[in-house]
Amino acid sequence: MAAALCVHRCQRTAPNRRGYRPGAADSVRTWETAAAVVPDGRGQPRHRLRAVGDFARWHGERAGTDQPGTRLAKGWAVVVSDYEGPQSEYGAGYQAGHFVLDAIRATLHFAPAGIAASAPIGLWGYSGGGLASAWAAELQPTYAPEVKLAGVAEGGVPPDLAAVARNIDGGAFAGIYFAVAVGLSRAYPEMDINAILNDKGKQLVASIGTKCITDIAAIGAFHRMAEYSTVSDPLALPRIQQVIAANHLGQHRPAGPIFDFHAIFDELIPIAGDDALAAQYCAEGVTVQHYRDPASEHASLAVTGAPLAVAYLADRFAAKPAPSTCAS
Questions:
Q1: E strands in 61-167
Q2: pLDDT band at residue 43 under the 50/70/90 scheme
Q3: Any catalytic annotation for residue 223?
Q4: CA distance 301 to 298
Q5: Could you check whether the bond before residue 257 is cis, i.e. omega within 30 degrees of 0?
Q6: What is the per-residue pLDDT for 17?
Q7: Does the active-site annotation cover 133?
Q8: Are 281 and 251 in contact (CB under 8 A)?
């Protein structure tokens, strides 16, 4: 029997990294792939997905799979957080991790959902959602120790934003570089990007400031950041480097266990950074199953990796021992 997702408005009380506390209620919405999944153990229908059902179905059709539906059909309660926050702080790691964990807290405290306090909890995210899930996993031991994670499935994770930016600058996906620059500047105003933008850059920021990533990717394709800046390499500026360093994964030890999957030929996010992150986690004693996919690229692994992520979490929820590739 299928469960259903209950979407309710909830007040976020925890501050982001600037100490901002929203005065109006935020909502839990379904438009990203970083999801906390909580099996309720009974498989009974819950509440109807409201307001965002059409988008969720569209996203599933676009990806060739209904990922939320897959989890609902297993009798899992599914929480999908708006991890960029009310200011769309795309790429900001602490913001993303806190929002994912706060969404889980809100769900567990929402009595009509009927989720037992002892229910196992897992995270599943890919690409930007993988970033959010990975940051949530790293921050959970100190920020939300009461949220016990049975397992984390994180795919296409970008541990080093600078490495990604340099890899895609001037290529088909250069627009993602511009989107992250704008998103991070909202979380970290000390970046002061307006001070290094030329007229063309200011027009670009104004143009993409309210657009979605697919539109931004199209606008920025095959352009270089240097075209929009008064400096040749913005990534070399100390204030930019400080923000990038603050958002580098690996600064906190996650409790684990983790299923980390990444395409060897990922054209957006070089696998070297993910290899290094997995090796670091292993060295820190985290139980990691690291899967390097030889046949996919970035977008296709979101689909082909989904069954692996579901199977991994299902085994963790069933209390099976977590596999590890750390010794291999």
A1: 76-80, 121-126, 149-155
A2: very low
A3: no
A4: 6
A5: yes
A6: 53
A7: no
A8: no
Query: Which residues are registered as beta bridge partners of 37?
Result: 78, 122
**Is it the case that residue 72 has pLDDT exceeding 80?**
no
C-alpha–C-alpha distance, residues 116 and 272, integer Å: 40
CA quadruple 240, 210, 195, 229: dihedral sign: positive
DSSP 156-181: S--S-HHHHHHHHTTSTTHHHHHHHH
Q: Can you tell me which residue has the tokens 């501050």?
A: 15
Beta bridge partners of 154: 125, 260
* CA–CA separation, 171 and 16 (whole Å): 32
User: Does the domain at residues 9-159+251-317 carry the CATH identifier 3.90.220.20?
Assistant: no
CA 83 to chain centre: 7
- 106 and 10 Cβ atoms separated by less than 8 Å: yes
CATH number assigned to the domain covering 161-246: 1.10.260.130
Q: Which residue has the tokens 């950074």?
A: 273
Identify residue 212 by its one-letter amino acid code: C
Helix (H/G/I), strand (E/B), else coil: 187: helix
Residue-wise pLDDT tens digits, 84-93: 988 889 999 9
pTM: 0.83
* Given the residues 266, 274, 290, 296, the one annotated as active site: 266
Q: Which of 127, 133, 185, 229 is catalytic?
A: 127
- For residue 88, indicate whether it is catalytic: no
Q: Please identify which of the residues 59, 262, 290, 298 carries the catalytic annotation.
A: 298
